Every structure is written in structure tokens, then in C-alpha cells.
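SAMPLE LOG
Freezer: B-3
Tube label: C17
Construct: single chain, 599 aa
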Amino acid sequence: MTFFLLGSFLVYSQSARLTTPWTSKVDSKEPLPEYPRPQLVRTEWQNLNGLWDYAILPKGVLPETSFTDKITVPFPVESFLSGVQKEVGPENELWYEKSFDLTLSTKNKRILLHFGASDWETEVWVNDQPVGTHQGGYDSFSFDITSQLNSGKTQKILVRVWDPSDSGPQPRGKQLKEPKGIWYTPVTGIWQTVWLENVPESYISGIYSNTDWEGGLQVFYPEVIQAKAEQEVEVIVFDGEQAVGSFRGKPNAPLPVKLAAPKPWSPDSPFLYQVSLRLLEGNKLIEEVKSYAAYRDIRMSKTPDGFQRIFLNGKPLFQYGPLDQGWWPDGLYTAPTDEALLFDIEKTKEMGFNMIRKHVKVEPARWYFHADRLGVLVWQDMPSGDMGNRWEVRPGIIREGVEKVRTPESESIFKTEWQEIINEFKFFPSIVVWVPFNEAWGQFKTSEIVNLTRKLDPSRLINSASGGNFEMEGASVVGDILDLHNYPDPVMPDPNIFGEKSIMVLGEFGGLGLPIEGHTWQQKDNWGYQSFSSAGELKARYSGMIKDLAEYISRGLAAAIYTQTTDVEIETNGLMTYDRQIIKIPVEELKNMHEKLYK
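STRUCTURE (predicted):
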């Protein structure tokens, strides 16, 4: 597949299999121009997205000449929007090359090269000098490239990516070399923004915060690279233009801020405080960065009926949302524009859902920023991989083979990436539940992984095993949540057995399929858990399910997740078509149906 430029936009020599309303809006010279890290904002940065040179070579073969073909970064090479639409496979490697003019000041500054995400093993050179290697398809990574820069403006980046897809043990989510059923097209290479920023010798590299609900505090945890003994960090919290709290303390130590009349964050009122972080050396300002925070508390607690439920800000809240795969027909893992990335969350909220389960995929930081702004709760899955163990859906059943016996390398890869994901994304207040395992896919050492998750982030709930392979401690599941899957009808765990010790959840149900001609990935042989031929039939069946679901809430059901937000490839289970052109049940009707769930 080839393309040529018309102004700033791509004109492809081959038609897309399926397009979205944003496909034609992609600017190949400057795709996804938005600042990629809204949780820690600096004013000086340089976006490297756009046209790069590329080559696909056999694994282990080094490039001998300059590349002649073009790819649009950060769209995966298999996607239409990359301009390539070729498979790579584990026997090959994907190479990128880009020459560019550095526009950032280097005077008394370090230059950092950032990758939002690249799947899976990524090796980088700058001006023919090695910089580093990263393994992981879902976490961001950075290199200090100051010592590799040329004295002039023009610089060159070379990147090698290898991805074993489903032949390797690494987390890969729904990717499969031969897509079928609920498994989709593989994704290789850079799939999030590549960018540069300049920082001082000592700089703020990260931030997250937790709410001390009883104390009326927001506790901030700044991370400072090359911190000096005489330096301090000051955090100032704003409500609009008004400062409502501040604290100054040592780098890499908690900074508790007492808030004047705290404003809680919730789906009904997603209030965000604006935050200024200042690195100081005496009275000298080293640097200042912008961030934000939400005053919100999530925990498990018992209601007067004796059942464990999810409490948000001291009150029980039934959580209901769709299973969200986060795939696009034109960009695969990568939404075509930020407007498109926002669209799915906006429509979910308009439909009357208050939660999204992000299914075995991790999104760019801007997705969670939008969820924070709009007030949508998020259950975050760990992308699965290294599968092959048995799946036992019944709680309290002993069965051989339910735990995957992984190699030490496989275990290390999982734990490393899960730790990176939690540490990076625990900033976002919309995330309220971590889900390390789904339907036994590569599940191993469940208690150990739950303990690791709790240690990394004790402020959120843990759904240890969504859909089965439950590890029990008496009548309670390891973790906080007992999560059943059932298609198509809603069910719930027996409250007389499990309701006193565990939060009872229906983690997946529904899957009602409706293929719509002209809006499917393929013409025939599309798939749903239960398929219909008209929107009227679909709506009637869904409405009946919501009535049944409402009956379970009074009996102790704390949350439910409907499959799913959109169709994906041959799956037609979505409330929206894969191209986002058609919503199968009118938004207002969905909202009216869902209102009864929260009463």
C-alpha cells in the first residue's frame, strides 16, 4: 500500500476497509498534535509524530541503506492510517528512521525523548549512538539523549521494534496473528505519540496523589530526578484562580495539602483541582509544572443490608458500564484523532453509563484525562498474554490446570509491565479498580499478584480474577471482588454465600449482536453472543435485560458490565458500529433505561 500527500493530508492509493468520521481528518505531517501527558505539563516540548521512513527486515538483519518507504507515526504498521497496512510477524523486525531539526533550547537543559507506547521490544539510537532498549507494549518510556545530540540543529533517530505477537509470552491483549472470533489484528511498533522535552538538571519526573477522606487532605507524591539535599518541592492547589491549599517539603516525599472546603469528584460532579508544582532551591525557582487532582475516595464497605458494596466518597454507588476494547478500524490500537478518542467516552456518558471497563488494553494518558474531566469511573484491565490454562467459571471449585505455569522470564515480563502500568496510571482519579486477570488468560500466582497490586496502589479496589479461576479465602475471593461472567443474560453470585465478605459483580454479560450492512469489518460471517436482524429486536432484548439487572441490585449486586461499547472486527456486539457511524439504540432511550439502576 502506498500514499501521496495533498497539502497536509494523506491520499491513499488503496481504500480503507472501514473508515470513521475522523479518518479523513488525520494530518500526516502532524497527527495527534495534542500534548500527550496531561498529568504533568511543561510548556516547552516538540512533537515528533508525522512521516518517518521505515523498513521491514528479517529479524537480526541490520539496515545497510537509508529507508525509502514512508509510515505515519504513531499509527501501527498494520493499520490503514499508517499508510503501510502490512503485517510484520515475529520473524521480522520493523525499523523506523527520522531526521528532524531540534527546536528546543539545550542551554543548561537535558533533552528527553519520550515514547507513549511501542509494541513490544523497542531499541533506539540517536545520531547512530545507542540510547537504550525497552520491553513492554503498554507503558510509556523515555531516554535522556543529551549526550547523543549533534552540535547543530539536525538530528537523526533510528528505532528497531520486534513483536512476537501471540507466539511470545508477553502481554498482548486481543492481538492474534490469525484473527478470529473475539481476537483481532496484531499491532506492531509505535502506537502512541513520540515527543521531546527539555528539563533542568534536577527536574520533576512524575506526580500522583491520594485522597485522605477523613482528614480532608490531598496527599501528593512528587518524583524528582537528580534531587539535591537543599531542594524542596512546593505544591499549590487551585479552585479556578483561587489557591485553596499548599505545602512545601522535600523531594520524593509525601506532601499533604489541607483543602479548604473540599469539593468531591464523582460522575455527577467531576470537579478537578488545578495544581502547580514548583521545584525550588532556597528562593530560586528551578522549574514549575502543571497538573491536576481530584478529591475522591473509593473503598469496599458494608451497607445496612449486610452486603459489601463499592463506596464512592462515603456512599454506595452501583457502577454500570460497557466493556470497552479501544480498537479502531482505521488506526487499530490508535484512535485517528483526539476528538475520536474522546468520542467513545462522551457517548458512553450520554447513554447513562457511569463506568467503563477498559478491556485487556491500556490507553494513552489523554484517554484517562478525558475520563477524569467527564466523570466516568474506570476499571483497568492488565493486557493478557501467555495463555493456555483451564478456565473454571464456578467459584469454590477445585480443578487442576487453572493456574498457568509460566517460565521465570514470562513471570518477570508480566510483573514488570503490570508494575509500570500501575505506577504510571495510578495518577488518574477515574481509575477505581485494577483487574490483573480476565477469564484465566495466562492467570498465575493470583494471591501474589493481588498482593503486588495492593502494595503498588493500596488506594483502589482489586478485581483479582474477572470471570473465573477464583482463588478463595473461606467464603471470600482473593482481592475485593467476586466477578461472574454470563452470556447473554444477567446473573449474580449467591448473596447468602458471598455477599458478606466480597463485592458481588457481574463482570460481563449481554453481547447482543446486530450487524449493520455497510458498517461491518467483513460482509458476512460476523459474530455475536446472540444476534438479531433489527434494531427493534435488539432494543427489546436489551431493555428486558436491564429490568432483570435492576432486580439484582437490591439483592446485593454492586456493579455490572455490558459487552460492549462498539463492534470490533468480526464482533458485532457493540452498542455502536465499529466505524462509530451508527448507535444501534438511541442514546436518550438508553439513558432512560439505565436511570432505574442508580435509584
